């Protein structure tokens, strides 16, 4: 497995490979789920560890855990944590979320960029690593909801990103796990285009009632990034590696 370093944000860097990299959805989810001061946080299915790294650089959370099923991805994440000197604050755990890896009520906030395809919906193209990350047979939304509900304290938050086609399924699955949808934001490439992603925050034990936030646009009509996207990407957007993508 060939891997290389990329600058990330705030002087940090991240080790990525062809099979285990990250995209816009992870950066948007990291911002949408940004921890508050003192929170205990976990990223379920962390991949190469980009979300815990961004949390550590940009927030004042107390502790961060990245959980990853695939050994190769977990190894990349651990190397990034160590290289940045974050070993005392970020822990990478290799394991299956369906085994409930956290004590009950031990977390304040969870982020998850779950497999985009529903179980049995077909096999995504690419190698085994890509299929594991994208195929819902490795983690259904119901299983995610159950694991998150167990680990979150009362009032804790689960934040996810998914394709819009699965919005109804996600709300139903999380509601059945007593995770009440509280905040929703759709993401569009530019005005006039259909949304390609949604960001959803659910609260453990929360009362009914969901706020729908303004649509997040990635580009202006001329193709340049919007002011909000410039803010979300921050100094990562200035990296030469990112500009070449």
TrEMBL record:
<dbReference type="InterPro" id="IPR050210">
    <property type="entry name" value="tRNA_Adenine-N(6)_MTase"/>
</dbReference>
<dbReference type="InterPro" id="IPR029063">
    <property type="entry name" value="SAM-dependent_MTases_sf"/>
</dbReference>
<dbReference type="Pfam" id="PF05175">
    <property type="entry name" value="MTS"/>
</dbReference>
<dbReference type="GO" id="GO:0032259">
    <property type="term" value="P:methylation"/>
</dbReference>
<feature type="domain" description="Methyltransferase small">
    <location>
        <begin position="26"/>
        <end position="120"/>
    </location>
</feature>
<keyword id="KW-0489">Methyltransferase</keyword>
<keyword id="KW-0808">Transferase</keyword>
<protein>
    <submittedName>
        <fullName>Methyltransferase</fullName>
    </submittedName>
</protein>
<feature type="region of interest" description="Disordered">
    <location>
        <begin position="220"/>
        <end position="245"/>
    </location>
</feature>
<dbReference type="GO" id="GO:0008168">
    <property type="term" value="F:methyltransferase activity"/>
</dbReference>
<dbReference type="InterPro" id="IPR007848">
    <property type="entry name" value="Small_mtfrase_dom"/>
</dbReference>
């Amino acid at each position: 497995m060939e891997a290389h370093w990329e600058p990330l944000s705030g002087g940090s860097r991240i080790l990525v490979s062809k099979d285990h990299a990250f995209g816009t959805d992870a950066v948007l989810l990291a911002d949408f789920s940004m921890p508050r001061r003192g929170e205990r946080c976990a990223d379920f299915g962390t991949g190469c560890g980009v979300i815990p790294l961004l949390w550590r650089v940009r927030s004042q959370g107390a502790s961060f855990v990245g959980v990853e099923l695939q050994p190769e991805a977990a190894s990349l994440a651990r190397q990034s944590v160590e290289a940045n000197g974050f070993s005392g604050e970020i822990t990478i755990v290799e394991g299956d979320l369906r085994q409930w890896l956290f004590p009950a009520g031990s977390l304040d906030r969870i982020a998850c960029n779950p497999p985009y395809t529903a179980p049995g919906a077909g096999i995504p193209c690419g190698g085994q690593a890509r299929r594991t990350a994208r195929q819902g047979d490795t983690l259904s939304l119901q299983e995610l909801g159950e694991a998150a509900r167990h680990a979150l304290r009362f009032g804790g938050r689960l934040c996810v990103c998914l394709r819009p086609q699965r919005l109804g399924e996600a709300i139903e699955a999380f509601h059945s796990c007593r995770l009440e949808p509280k905040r929703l934001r759709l993401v569009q490439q530019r005005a006039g285009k259909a949304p390609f992603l949604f960001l959803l925050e659910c609260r453990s034990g929360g009362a009914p009632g969901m706020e729908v936030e303004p649509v997040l646009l990635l580009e202006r009509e001329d193709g340049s990034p919007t002011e909000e996207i410039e803010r979300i990407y921050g100094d990562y957007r200035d990296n030469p590696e990112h500009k070449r993508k």
